[in-house]
Amino acid sequence: MINVMKLVGGLLFGLSLHGCAAYKPVPEGYTGPVAVVADSGMPVDGTKSIIFALMDVDGQGIDNSFRASAGASHGRGFALTTQFVGRPVPASKAMKVRLKGSHITGAPIHAIASQIAGTFFSVEGVVDFTPMSGGNYVVRGELKKGGSSVWIEDRATGLPVTEKIIEK
Which residues fall within 8 angstroms of residue 105, CB to CB, at 6 or more apart? Predict the structure, then answer.
């Protein structure tokens, strides 16, 4: 049974990293204005965390805290090492971004057990976002039964700069 669990865990981890060569929203040699968008969240305990992340820009997957945390935790059983990612994005350009707020666990079986217990929440969706030159933004949200949400806010003012994606 242990070997089956390792195989399933390895397969799920591999699938989570599929397409690992992430798109870079600011390509090499770009000289235009940029802004920074950081993921956020918090550890719940040594095996589970909450992450609010920018997942893709204009349909292209990017480096994010879910990938970074899965990579940092690979091969450590239930232990979770949460990594938070920030990245530059082109400024003054309208884009569609996919945001995700979710619990993350060190082991897939823990996520399944948490879902069954009703203690694993997730929300995601696409919103319009036009970052300002030199802007500093953070993905924020809240996870709760029947009312999880995620959005981007201006780090300096704490005000939302995108529509809130609300669990339906």
Answer: 47, 48, 78, 80, 111, 114, 120
Q: Classify the C-alpha dihedral 153-158-159-163 as positive or negative.
A: positive
CA gap 49, 105 in Å, rounded: 7
The burial of 18, by beta-carbon neighbours within 10 Å (0-12 exposed, 13-18 middle, 19 or more buried), is given as exposed
Dig out the tokens for 96 from the structure. Answer: 């569609």
User: What is this structure's pTM?
Assistant: 0.82
Q: pLDDT tens for residues 145-157? A: 889 999 999 999 9
User: Residue 80: how many CB atoms within 10 A of its CB?
Assistant: 23
| Domain limits for position 29 | 2-166
> Does the pLDDT value for residue 106 go beyond 90?
no
Query: Which residues, at least 6 apart from 135, have a Cβ–Cβ distance to it below 8 Å?
Result: 35, 36, 91, 154
What domain count does the chain have?
1
